[in-house]
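Sample entry (338 residues):
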Amino acid sequence: MRSLAIILGFAFFHSLAQEPSQPAPAAQFLTVPAGTKVVLGLTSPVWAKSTKPGDSIYAETTFPVAINDAMAIPAGTNVKGAIDILLRPGVLSRNAEFRIRFSEIVFANGYTVPLPEAFATLSAQVAMRNDVLLDDGSPLEMVLEQPLSLAASSVAAAVRVSKAPKPRDFRSASLCTPVPATAGTSDTVIPGTPGTPPTVIPGGPGIPPTVIPGTPPTPDTVIPGTPGSPEVPCPGPPQVTSTPAMHSESFRLSQPVVEAGRTLAAGSYEIAWEGLGPAAQARILKNGNVLATLPATVAAIGADAPANDTALRGNPDGSSSIQSIRFKSRNFALQFNP
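Predicted structure, serialized as tokens:
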């Protein structure tokens, strides 16, 4: 009997070893489709003076994402990324523009998933005294450029411990303090003198009177006071919008190129597009007239370009096309696929 049990046991384990491994059932995974928009609230401020491209960004979801009636990303899930493109406000415009590339999502139970392609683009209207370009709690809308696969069991465990953030959880990070009003001072008046009349000493027979002139009056002397100043309050938080901003830049062609079936002569042109991408539709203009419309990619290049620069690409038929355009003092370029 003992030998029979050993043989049967060996046969059982042998059959398990021979059985091919099966892929995990599809139900074990949740797939968030490309194009999904995830609403976030910023949890780390973007400082006006010190922030630069490449700096880390932290946010958390403020609204859940559900797929086929199943919770995929609960509210209160943390997201990490970095500033990809930053356009600071200037003299002519008080708008700051951002493109943020998110790299990973961290659920409340510690389940962490890389984000292959996820972006948020936004603008913020900034006042002169704002010390933050984006304050804690600023709304962001992250767009998934690729599908995101999530382990259903890990997400379910995260849902049980997730807590949706409340508006009071976001406190302004601004260090601004209001400038108090000054009362000012009143005018100081130094009284003048009334003056004195002339003194007349009568003369004798044949002698005219003697007149001693008096002194003229002097006016009051007024030393103006100070007018004072009103209180200078701290500005409100930057006003955030996800509406794509219009961009227009100049560039120059050193030789003719063929774009959208049209030959463009060497010379100066304008190129216009909306937003910071990554995908954009670029319009090439001359004297306000649209000559060609091209699909483009807004690509971060790290440091600001020192000057406008247009790179060309050779085509199989011997013609040339635009490969990329960089712009002075911009840390991005427009790239064009063949």
